[in-house]
UniProtKB/TrEMBL annotation:
Similarity annotation: Belongs to the FlbT family.
The protein's name in its UniProt record: Probable flagellum biosynthesis repressor protein FlbT
Gene: flbT
Record keywords: Bacterial flagellum biogenesis, Cell projection, Cilium, Flagellum, Repressor, RNA-binding
Function comment: Has a post-transcriptional repressor function in flagellum biogenesis. Associates with the 5'-UTR of fljK mRNA and promotes its degradation.
HAMAP family, per the entry: FlbT
Single GO MF descriptor: mRNA 5'-UTR binding
BP GO terms, sorted: bacterial-type flagellum organization; mRNA catabolic process; negative regulation of bacterial-type flagellum assembly
Length: 140
């Protein structure tokens, strides 16, 4: 049995539901009465903001969620990008999180995968900041 989901949207806000983009013209509260795949506008990453490995992965998973008609293509991109991203990190929190992301995507739960990736942003930021501030060792 599915549960209903209550959402409150501000005037002008957009929501992506099952591949459709809806924009409300005034403050509104809606109730989803059945299972639906949705993404609130404030969780949508724009292509220009996909500037780190995890944000690029987020963007691809987001495409799976937002555009179900192209999900197969986005899933193929996800597989390649996931492998490259996993290989680029040694931080155990990120690598374990990425494995959970793959499990969620494989289980058809891209929304949960996006939540995991967003939760990894601060860790990624710390890792990337540390690698930028630590210059490579000099050759002797």
């Amino acid at each position: 049995m599915s549960r209903s989901m209550h959402l409150s949207l501000r005037a002008g806000e957009r929501i992506f539901i099952n591949g459709a983009v809806l924009r409300v013209d005034r403050k509104v509260s809606i109730e989803l009465l059945n299972d639906a795949t949705f993404l609130l506008e404030n969780h949508v990453l724009q292509v220009d903001d996909a500037t780190t490995p995890l944000r690029q992965l987020y963007f691809v998973v987001q495409a799976i969620l937002i555009d179900p008609s192209s999900a197969d293509k986005a899933l193929a991109v996800f597989r390649d990008l996931f492998t490259a991203t996993l290989e680029s990190f040694t931080n155990p929190e990120i690598t374990q999180g990425l494995k959970s992301v793959a499990e969620m995507v494989d289980a058809g739960r891209p929304f949960d995968a996006l939540k995991i990736i967003r939760g990894l942003y601060p860790v990624e930021s710390a890792v990337l900041s540390a690698s930028v501030s630590s210059p490579p060792p000099r050759a002797a």
